[in-house]
Design goal:
Elements: H1 5-11, H2 14-54, E1 57-67, E2 70-80, E3 83-90, E4 94-97, E5 104-109, E6 112-117, H3 119-133, E7 139-145, E8 149-150, E9 159-161, H4 165-169, H5 175-189
Parallel strand pairs: 3-7, 4-8, 7-9
Antiparallel strand pairs: 1-2, 2-3, 4-5, 5-6
Length: 193
């Protein structure tokens, strides 16, 4: 006798139905996590590829030894034709309400609001530390937000998206283009861990 799915479900005990429901939820959640990981990994690969295009040399996920067991952590430090650049990654999406001088920025996703510390404060401290190590160098910093982030009330100047990096820095530079910064870059390397 052929039983439809509904009649087969009617024959299952409540425990079996609960087990099936929990299993379906766990499988769905696992698939969602895998999807998010793939999207994030794809974005970070795109960031790496772009950083390679715009820099003469770079370091990723490094710390700077400040002495006395103090360290500053950087997502990226790169040597470009415009100097040494600290690039911080904020893989945030949604509406971002931001301004350089305010303490907290706000991210809104699906009508939920999340506050986070203004990333410029941390970036400015890192740039100051770099300037102490290599004072004669042009050092700047930028914050890279995901393409899915939009800034309805305006975007601060040094907040960029990945597709804007090549426009700001040009294609990969030659050693000649970076020569004014090579001695500082080499000195900075001695402080990296």
């Amino acid at each position: 006798m052929d039983l439809s799915i509904f009649s087969q479900l009617n024959q299952l005990s409540q425990l079996e139905i609960l087990i099936l429901a929990v299993s379906a939820i766990l499988v769905s959640y696992s698939l969602l996590l895998v999807y998010r990981w793939i999207v994030k990994d794809r974005y970070l690969r795109k960031v790496n590829k772009t950083v390679k295009k715009i820099s003469c040399d770079f370091f990723k996920d490094i710390s700077l030894d400040l002495g006395g067991e103090q360290y500053a952590f950087f997502d990226y430090l790169l040597l470009s034709r415009k100097g040494i650049v600290a690039l911080e990654i904020k893989n945030f999406s949604g509406h971002i309400y931001a301004a350089p001088g305010i303490n907290e920025w706000t991210q809104i996703i699906e009508r939920k609001s999340y506050k986070f510390t203004n990333p410029f404060f941390d970036l400015e401290q890192k740039i100051d530390l770099l300037k102490q190590i290599v004072p004669e160098q042009d050092i700047s910093g930028m914050i890279l937000f995901a393409e899915q982030a939009d800034f309805p009330k305006g975007r601060p100047d040094n907040v960029v998206r990945i597709n804007e990096l090549i426009g700001r820095f040009g294609k990969a530079c030659s050693a000649d283009a970076a020569s004014p910064y090579l001695s500082g870059w080499n000195h900075l390397k001695t402080h990296l861990t």
